[in-house]
Amino acid sequence: MGKRRPGAPTLEEVAAHAGVGRGTVSRVVNNAAGVKESTRRAVQRAIEELGYVPNLAARSLAGRRADAVALVLTEPDWRMFAEPFFSEIVRSLGDALADTGMQLLLTLVRSEDERQRFLEYARGGRVDGILMMSVHAGDQLPDMLAEARLPTVLLGRRSGEEYVSYVDADNVGGARNAVSYLLKQGRRTIATITGPLDMYVAQCRLRGYRDALEMAGLEGTPSLVAEGDFTEESGRRAMADLIERHPEIDGILAASDTSAAGALQALRAAGRRVPEDVAVIGFDDFSLAQRTEPRLTTVRQPVEEMGRSMIRLLLEEMEEPFVAWRHVILRTELVVRESA
Amino acid sequence: MGKRRPGAPTLEEVAAHAGVGRGTVSRVVNNAAGVKESTRRAVQRAIEELGYVPNLAARSLAGRRADAVALVLTEPDWRMFAEPFFSEIVRSLGDALADTGMQLLLTLVRSEDERQRFLEYARGGRVDGILMMSVHAGDQLPDMLAEARLPTVLLGRRSGEEYVSYVDADNVGGARNAVSYLLKQGRRTIATITGPLDMYVAQCRLRGYRDALEMAGLEGTPSLVAEGDFTEESGRRAMADLIERHPEIDGILAASDTSAAGALQALRAAGRRVPEDVAVIGFDDFSLAQRTEPRLTTVRQPVEEMGRSMIRLLLEEMEEPFVAWRHVILRTELVVRESA
DNA sequence: CTGAAAGCGCTAACAA
DNA sequence: TTGTTAGCGCTTTCAG
């Protein structure tokens, strides 16, 4: 293994070149206060002239932070990689992190082997904190991270009793509002296309659907529930099944915008008019707004706020570790976009 | 900033606990040869008992590698994030890296600020090498990395005179073969939907298209070339334009499978039969195989091989730095999938 | 405001 | 086969 950048100048050399002590250079590099302006300038010139770049390993070792946080993507996320919700969240995390000077590192954990490797990486101190998104119910990684006392924040929870810090949307409420809205429109046979039911988020949206029906005094019909996995293809397939089972369907709640798009395709293929014959509401509103269904009514999650909240919680945990789990549940908003 | 894992045991403590010297523990941890089996076992027990985890910063500092490589995604990549080609490449890189014990870190570089931060991160020695994909012609980052003497490998090149190490597919040849195939079928009015023409890969595919026409003694018609950006939406739009300008079109080469899918939609919407009236060939074959167009003929890039090659080149550069740029150009394959 | 010095935890070279 | 030791480059007291 070739040594890294063999002749790279060190703090020491910069100090010598500038005719000051090591500590002073360190202060300048870290923008610490208490350095005479002229000295600072002299040091800065020396840095320029020598092309000095701080050695991050040394900095880390000397007892400070790694200045990086990892966003872990476990295997089940993989398919969602292509979902707009995913990239929007990543984008918002990047924005939220911009001020902190920390690097956002996406890491893929697909096998047990990779999980172990990542754990070593994190426990080895290469990151100051860990973010996870779309956690599946049975995922043990958050527990392992918690055990290693690593600041961790989840997007979504694994169950109602999640203890690791998380940021989540009010999925039950969002779904309930959506279905109530459909009922208010006079729809009576409302079906739902869920997400993968091993994810708590999907369970919550399903619960909201059921709650709304119950509140309206209607009885839930099991055959009006079709499991999907958030993807467009699953939406198409689920919708096709639903139409066959219940030709009288006049309303749909889909657990994602993408599966809603699939549902719309299947409905049109079956000759239904949307939204005259059948109204569709989906969760999230990224892909559709940009693509083929700009007029779909959606339950919007506050993505920017989610990213910001995750970073805020993470920073709090880094600041004052191991004192408490922190939870944030953000409100959703029904965005009505039906054309007149 | 809270100190990281304050009470974490060190090598020293493990050594004391096991009643051996520090060096011995280091050897055991690193699986080095030359340790008596009984000693090794004793050390391993001590490690278990104390829950020792090596401090990676210290390890890095002590003169070895960072055991991590970064895959940089610059702003223009961002849209491709959702493209199947992207996730397939990432997957193959992960596989290729699995043996090496290195962490793959995806980093997003969207702004000048983030570019600077990443540069510091890389020059600071947090990664042993850098991979970049879908580099745009004007991107300076590879030069900066080269200047910093950081092992770097690109997927694709910025121009015909690329010097930084890269792995690329034979895009000209692939496009030429595809168009020749269409010509052999008797198609005579062949259009192309390109990728973003500020990317060399898109230029090459366009060149291949033109070469094939020329070889057949046909004249290239500028209005048969529509610029897209690899996305489905761009394919739809470009195709719609092309049909309007040239209703007689009977063949299409699309620069990606995704834009080919968009083209197919536009063709069907215009009442054309595919492939009877119009034949379509796209580059890559991921999304379509999994989605709606399993029978599209495609120019297949050897994704697995691309990932493997990139890692191989990177390892070579790390091993023996700064001696040469290395280039690999992989053959493409025309995968005919028309139904009878 | 600045310099000197004590580590941070590990690897690797050298003795033993 | 193993123990000892000299750094790796930086941050951070503590004097001055």
UniProtKB/TrEMBL annotation, chains A, B:
Q: Which residues form the HTH lacI-type domain?
A: 9-63
- Matches recorded under SMART domains: HTH_LACI
Question: Which superkingdom does the taxonomy of this entry point to?
Answer: Bacteria
| Alphabetized Pfam families for the sequence | LacI, Peripla_BP_3
Question: CDD domains, per this entry?
Answer: HTH_LacI (cd01392), PBP1_LacI_sugar_binding-like (cd06267)
Gene Ontology terms for molecular function: DNA binding
Q: Which Gene3D superfamilies match?
A: 3.40.50.2300, lambda repressor-like DNA-binding domains
The entry's keywords: DNA-binding, Transcription, Transcription regulation
PROSITE patterns in alphabetical order: HTH_LACI_1, HTH_LACI_2
What protein am I looking at? Answer: LacI family DNA-binding transcriptional regulator
